[in-house]
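Uncaracterized surface protein containing fasciclin (FAS1) repeats: structure, please.
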Amino acid sequence: MRKNLKIVAFTMMSLTLACSADAVAQKMKEKTVMVGGAAMYPSKNIIENAVNSKDHTTLVAAVKAAGLVETLQSKGPFTVFAPTDQAFAKLPKGTVESLVKPENKKMLTKILTYHVIPGKYSSKQLWEAVRAGNGTAKMKTVEGEDLVFWIEGKDLFVKDIKGNSSKITIADVNQSNGVIHVVDNVLMP
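Here you go.
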C-alpha cells in the first residue's frame, strides 16, 4: 500500500513539474517585444502589459483616471496608439495634471479613446491601407473622429484631426485583446 502511495505521489509530482515546465516553455515561445524595459506578452491583455512598461506610466495613470481599465482589459480587439511618457511631457506644462482631475474626466476619456481604433490592425495592414489609399489612409477611432496614416521612407506616421503628427516608434506589440503601436506624440481630437 505504501509503495502504491509513493508511486502515485511521484507520478503526481512528475505531472505537476511537467505542466509547470510546459507553461514556462510556452511563455518562452511567445514572441515578446520589449517596451519600456519590460517584455510584452501576447498572452496578456493591454493593461496587464502596459503596467509593466516604464515608458508608459503617464498613460497608465491617465487610463485609470478616465476609468478605462476594464474596457482595455475586455475582449476587444483594440488597436492602441500608446504615447510614451516623453510624448506626454511635450504637452504644455500642467496639461496632464489638469486632465487627470475628476472634473476633466470627459475630456481625458475623449483624448484617450482617440488613440484607439476598434479591431486589430498590424503595421503591415496599416501600410497596405496607405498604399491602397494613394499615400494616406483614414481610420475612425473609438472617440469617433479619424486618424490619418502615411509613410515616410521606412517609417509609419499618424496625424490627428488638428494636423499634429506622431511617428510609430515600436510597432506590432501584440496583446491577447489587440495590438499596441507606441507613438512619440499625444494625438488630440
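Notes: The chain has eight helices and nine strands.
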